[in-house]
């Protein structure tokens, strides 16, 4: 393996990884051409994703092998439960999403698949497994959001979804997460590393399916 563990995982997850980072859904966010109907279905489903994602952050917090790691993970939990959650609430108000659809919508199969993977990692994943799925979710979002134009779309539904994933604190969190998986990955045997690769590839595929579900 040359380079870092995370770079190895990413490079072996092409072409899906690049398809996520350059997805037409993200281009439509950047130029403000995203129809409200698509943004609405995406956000309703993503709130279901974020629910299980928050539980997975809890698993990472519990399984971390050092106090500084727990502090870094706790910081991210704070963002998900404050700024990100209030964005969802304001977006749902704007899009007139009724209460039932905010809490118990019918879930798309792409949403179900991702939730099942995260729930499975929560129950039986090692710290490295949990980190792998977190890295795919956060790094891929950081990468597409970094492609945003300087002039953001006027509509807050679009601009804030970009800036939530394109700001100094989020970039630092993603940098930490990748460095943490690099650190832990270096201690794994070949079989465990191969397992992380399978998880990375699967989660990347699920990210692509998730965007596709609200695009094609
Ligand atoms: C589907 C999906 N992947 C990643 C993120 C970022 O955590 C998100 N909000 N939704």
How would you describe what is shown here?
77% of the residues lie in helices and 0% in strands. By secondary structure, the chain is mainly α. It has a single domain, classed as Up-down Bundle (Heme Oxygenase, Chain A), CATH 1.20.910.10. The N and C termini lie far apart (36 Å). The site of 4-amino-5-hydroxymethyl-2-methylpyrimidine has 9 residues, from helix 4, helix 8 and helix 11. One of its GO terms (biological process) is thiamine biosynthetic process. Pathway: Cofactor biosynthesis; thiamine diphosphate biosynthesis. Keywords: Hydrolase, Thiamine biosynthesis. One of its GO terms (cellular component) is cytosol.
Q: Given the C-alpha coordinates, what overall shape results?
A: globular
Integer tally of domains: 1
Which ligands does the model contain, each kind named once? Answer: 4-amino-5-hydroxymethyl-2-methylpyrimidine
The CATH homologous superfamily is called: Heme oxygenase-like
Q: How far from one another are the termini?
A: 36 Å
Mean pLDDT: 96
Q: Which class do the helix and strand fractions yield?
A: mainly alpha
Oligomer: single chain
Biggest sheet details: none
The H-and-E topology, N to C, reads as HHHHHHHHHHH
Rg, Cα atoms, Å? 17 Å
CATH C-level class is Mainly Alpha
Family: Belongs to the TenA family.
GO molecular function, one term: thiaminase activity
Pathway: Cofactor biosynthesis; thiamine diphosphate biosynthesis
Active site: 207 (proton donor)
